[in-house]
């Protein structure tokens, strides 16, 4: 019995020690939990303080940008671009002399559009009308955005990824032009922006995007211009690029029913040749040039499926009646901007505020 009692006493002592150790461990665990909770609360307060500071910094940056824009607006330093009436008359006379002459191609490009291979809707950004594009010469990944139909600012995104992922313009650089642009017929080509300015007669401004200066300007040598597209009354000149170089698509009261085409010298902005095309202005919403052939896109007043319904080949290789009737996929509204990229063989389109890429299937003109 004494042995059993000693063993029981020893067992009781061990149980008592276990209770003490458990109580101590529980206390230490509770203290550690309280310490961690305190650290988490402090971290949350620091995170909230950093978020508040970041928002405050963003507000200050936006305010600074607005102040800089205001100062630039109040103290502009535009280069001197004057309209020389004598030079304008000479350009008009020279252009008329070369009107509808046979065109000698600069390249061996002989492709035409067979069909629209695919459509990719990237996002919805800005106004219902506008223009977005890349450098048509294919030497830059930057995205240029003209929001609306009249402004003096161009948004520049570094790559397609930034333009696609971010809904705001905070990730975009802003280029404030010395003169406001009008319409959606502008073009970025070989590091230069060719944009349309309206001050009495329409001018094509050549703007160097690297040093932010006006390189050249030219009064467009066409009298009594009217909107070139019946469904896009805000565009009077559409500057386009293809494998052959630069073109200007326009319309005048002299032949108000049809669209006219001109070949531009990208260096001097001189008109090299001009053509009267059989493509009507009525119900036209946009146009682009592929391998020296003007493609005019048509729709209806109540937007339906857009289609390339008139093709005019300046070299005479492709007759208008032999061209394929190309339909675009059904979308939201009508196109306000369409820019062909000869390097990528695709079209950057602005459709009721949506930015779309059309990839095209091409084939030889002789196969049509």
Automatic annotation (TrEMBL):
Coiled coil spans: 1-74
GO cellular component, one term: extracellular space
SS bond list: 109-291
InterPro entries: Olfac-like_dom, Olfactomedin-like_domain
One protein family per Pfam: OLF
Keyword DNA damage: no
Keywords, alphabetical: Coiled coil, Developmental protein, Disulfide bond, Glycoprotein, Secreted, Signal
Domain Olfactomedin-like span(s) in chain numbering: 108-364
BP term (GO), one: signal transduction
Key word Nucleotidyltransferase present: no
Cell compartments where the protein resides: Secreted
Family: Belongs to the OLFML3 family.
Official protein name in the record: Olfactomedin-like 3
Organism expressing this protein natively: Columba livia (Rock dove)
